[in-house]
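Pasting two entries for a bug report.
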Amino acid sequence: MVVEAPVLYRVITTAGVGPVLYRVITMVVEAPVLYRVITTAGFIVLAVIFILLQGVTIGLWLSVRTKADLWLRGKMLDLLKNYAGPEATDSTSNGWNILFMKARCCGVNAQYENGGTNDDFTELPTTWTPSGTDKLPASCCQGASTSTVSTYVSSSTCTQTPSNFYTEGCYSRVKHYIDTYSLVTIIAAGSGIMVELLETKF
């Protein structure tokens, strides 16, 4: 049973305990209420700070995205300069060949786009340059794999024409993968903000 404050005061003063003890008792009685007020206010402050930090993080990511895209394209072009061909065994060339075949792309930018003559291997140029009748590396041919790529060298149906090759540049493919995973991160962060807002509200 909860005793009302005026009644409690009369009981204490009648007993001769005095108003000092009354104040102490009322402080003890009201302490849980005060604690709840303080902890609720603290939670709200921390939640607001956390939400602001998440918002700043997303804003910074969006602001540097364009610069990051330019940096990525530039780095890929620098690496492609050291490409030595579809049958080269060095790590750089091997990495590019695997990327061409697995990601189904060729070079960094789109190759021979819209029937044009532009290709990264000639324009950079790369260590491997179109020689003889081959205009593109055999690893850019559709259907080529690590075990069959040599059969596509000097192919009249791919590297010589060129035709039946992956026209999309690897930059756009890599950027697509990065954007996909970045979108997942943004959705997760946004969901976290919504949950915190709801928890703060209720």
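Entry 2 (this is the one that rendered wrong in the viewer):
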Amino acid sequence: MVNAVPHKRTTSFGACPPPEGSHTQIPVLQVSLSTDPPVAGQKDAFTVSGKFTKDVTDQTKLVIAFVDIIGKKPIQDPTTVPACTGSGCPIKAGDQYTQTVEVQAPENLPVTYALVVGVGNSIPDPLGCAFAIV
């Protein structure tokens, strides 16, 4: 019998494609995971950071989605939280933004899927985004 050691993948985030109808590249967020890669059915802390050309306000959202790359749809409802609250708002354009959010990974993670992390005021107005194939 051979002892097999599982290979640990490291999730590498990069640029998201521009929104449909746009050719403008969205600023890339830096994302790190407490458990990398996420484990199906378990909580994982996503730490998201970046600098933006617009203010982060109490209307700005942080969205984290697990996406089925074959079906091109979310595996579960995306996690959506305020990007800043209370005395931490607003975060002025050009200042460092950092937020850590705990996310429950889907129970039914496929072998290969995508992670999409975005900060913005609306889908056509993203401040930053990161994309990874896991």
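Dev reply: Rendering is fixed now. As a check, the viewer should reflect this: The two ends are 30 Å apart (CA to CA).
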